[in-house]
Request: fold
Amino acid sequence: MGSMLRHIAGHLAQALLLLIGVVVAIFCLLQLIPGDPVQAMVGDMPVPPALRAALEQRFHLNEPFLSRLYGYLVNILHGDLGYSMNYRRPVFDILAERFPRTLLLAGVGYAFGILIGIAIGIHSAVTPHRSVDRAWSSLVLIGYAMPTFWVGQLLVIVFSIQLGWLPTQGMGPMISRASGIDWLLERATYLVLPVATYTILETTRVARFMRASVSETLEQGYIVTARQKGLSRHEIIMGHVVRNSILPVITVMGYSFGTAMGGAVLLETVFSYPGVGSLMVEAVRARDTQVIVGVVILVACSVVFMNIVVDLLYAWFDPRIRVSSAQS
Amino acid sequence: MPAEPGAVLPVPSNRFRTAAPFDLLRRLFRTRFGGIGLVILVAISLLSIFAPWFASSGPADIGSPSLQPPSWQHPFGTDSLGRDVRSVLLFAGRSSLTIGFCAAAMAFLIGGTIGALAGYFRGAFAAVLLRITDLFHTLPAIIIVLFTVSLMGASFWLQVAAVALAIWPIEARIVYGQFITLSEREFVLAARATGLSTPHIIFKEILPNALPTVIVQVALDASTAILIEAGLGFLGLSDPAVPSWGEMLNRGQEFLELAWWMSVFPGMAICVAVLGFNMFADGVTEMFNPRASATAPKLEG
Reply:
């Protein structure tokens, strides 16, 4: 257990450094904006003198570079991400309201995608029929080439506009009289299309890694041994192949969570879903810099957090990892 | 299957350098997807370059009745401004493909340089470069692009630079991996022992051997760049003066209920272009990695 703790501590320290690096990089980029920094923070709106003085004091604008950077970092560590002139609310509050929605959407789609992707990847790699493998490979290749938001648009055209089965956008009806289970079901119908789009996107990514990983596992010596022991095909696949092939897929999960968060930007716009992604787009359109920076930091935090989770899962699955990292 | 990113492709060096272009092409066409990929890429490039020959009207001609469904006269319909969608699509392909090729080339220059330096010199210097790479790799590409565009504005070439800024870390990782592996190989050690200069070793010994892997990654980068541009255009944040496939989708979103053809065809164009790059990358991988497919010709030098 000691090795596990040390493994966790090492990763947490690295993650913290990475996040500080992201904030410093953002800070430096913000310095590059030509013109008045207070104006840039507020966006395309007039700045009253009182606000200007307050902002200058809060961000230490009249002090040298390093002390400004320090002040910026301290503010962020206190959860002070600034104030949005566009929404007239603190950035932290907006994010706290919207992030759970994005997590719901991306999380459900992500989970479905991983499960279906793993299944397709395994089937594609172990199937004795070349044509089946080729069909899955082609499908995955096409799925991988489709822009996420366009898949969303296609689903809207088919299921909402042509067939009229599902609502096109939003999180729920404007006025709802439903309650209890009905309310939940009503909400769920709004989630079907965005979640389905996420799932398609995630499935193609995972399936492609899983197929490569399973093909590699199949060539290992212990599979040959298992076959010679007389284990059935089913026993070999479930007992040996799946367990050993999932590890490499887990490592890419952290990064692909980042892509899912990136996908949120476009998908939430297609479905007018009020999450963090559509917030980012609204903020870019309104030149609401504080909000943009807030979203960037939030996404960086969640990706780094996901990477830690993935590392821990990995170490838990494969004891060799934590032993070797504790030794180094 | 799309190419496995970062896989070291075993290439006997002299074989690759002396192989006739025609021979390479023939081997590409023997792979599962490589030939189709190349044909797609050449076809869409020609269609865009010679757009005036294939288009029935200019990209800004608004003479036709608006929102017409596909017909013999307008195979892809007309848009809300009364332009022939097929014609706009052909002209828009120019900017979308330019972004794909140029952003990938730029990402290769940035990422390739950083990866090569880190991989060749190692030590603390490499560690710093790799941490910077990680920093950029943490954020999803579209977020980096949106952030950059919001700060710097959205002129066409700034957009290309923003996309390159978002995708170079993968390139750096791949080149780094190649340099780490290759600089331990006997022929590089021999070159060092003979006292050949560092630039000679990097450009004449290591780079040619890393080439297949790098080509695969640049092709994948180009497809990523086209997808990012599509996203940016769709959000209405690309250069408004330059028509692109993403920008067409942005217009289409508004008319999703009235005119599906305004969204379906530009999306298909993006899909085909990305598919072309990915298939090409897949083919090159298979060509130099006999294990990837049993039917591929073996590469004994």
Summary: Chain A has a mean pLDDT of 78. The first strand of chain A starts at residue 83 and ends at 84. Chain A has 13 helices and two strands.
